[in-house]
Specification:
It is built from 6 helices and 10 strands; from the N terminus they run E-E-E-H-E-H-H-E-H-E-E-E-E-H-E-H. By secondary structure, the chain is an alpha/beta fold.
């Protein structure tokens, strides 16, 4: 069983400039995901690949022991390019460069590093146990529920619940989840099928039992740095 672990880091970040290598609690952000990748790789004999269009990001990755000659093509480094095309490109590159065929791809999002080795192992096991599933991604229990307290504009111009149902409390509504962008497992055939989204008709989820969120705004970065510096996490990174 061969696994490729990918870390995707584009150079041009607008919300938090340079966030992929910005220091957080004394360590470059990408370093947390590289550490997680190394832990998983040591147990499953996986390979690690960094895909970036930035020489600077690639140099920082090398400081953490991940050396590569790969540089993402400019056409795959724009705001409008989806992640699946990026993953497919680096997957084919690594397979050709290493002379192997991978069975699984694990993508660790650099900007959502609050994950543990236990999370990755349990998520991987869920996917291995389901022959029909194509992929798995991490989620958290959602604070808002489209059956109870999420609304959208309707055709008549007024606002109503996104999903119809008769539920008097959020707790009685069907459970829904927030994708936290932390990690994604894909079976190799996922890419052969040409699926353009990270969500398929046969996706599984791993529900994280702890806090996890993506860094979209400067305030998110400040909050995560506080959690790390003040030892407020109830799990080991």
């Amino acid at each position: 069983m061969r696994v490729l672990i990918t870390l995707c880091g584009r150079g041009g970040s607008k919300g938090i400039p340079g966030k992929n290598i910005k220091l957080i609690n004394g360590k470059a952000l990408i370093g947390y995901s590289i550490d997680a990748a190394k832990k998983f790789a040591s147990k499953y004999n996986a390979d690690i690949a960094v895909t970036t269009d930035s020489i600077e990001i690639r140099k920082v990755a090398e400081q953490f022991g991940i050396v590569t000659q790969y540089l993402r093509p400019a056409e795959l480094a724009t705001d409008s390019v989806g992640k699946m095309g990026v993953l497919n490109h680096v997957l084919l590159y690594e397979e050709q460069n290493r002379g192997v065929k991978y069975d699984f791809l694990l993508d660790l999002d650099i900007t959502s590093p609050l994950r543990s080795l236990n999370d990755l192992e349990k998520g991987f096991e869920l996917l291995l146990q389901d022959e029909n599933a194509l992929n798995l991604f991490s989620v958290n229990n959602a604070n808002r529920n489209p059956y109870f307290n999420m609304v959208e504009k309707q055709e008549n111009g007024y606002y109503g619940l996104i999903k119809k149902g008769v539920f008097k409390t959020r707790q009685s509504s069907p459970p829904v989840y927030d994708m936290n962008a932390s990690f994604y497992f894909f079976k190799r055939k996922y890419f052969d099928m040409g699926i353009e989204s990270s969500i398929s008709e046969r996706s599984l989820v791993y529900v994280m039992p702890h806090i996890c969120f993506d860094l979209d705004h400067p305030a998110d970065f400040d909050y995560m740095e506080y959690l790390l510096s003040a030892n407020k996490l109830d799990f080991d990174l």
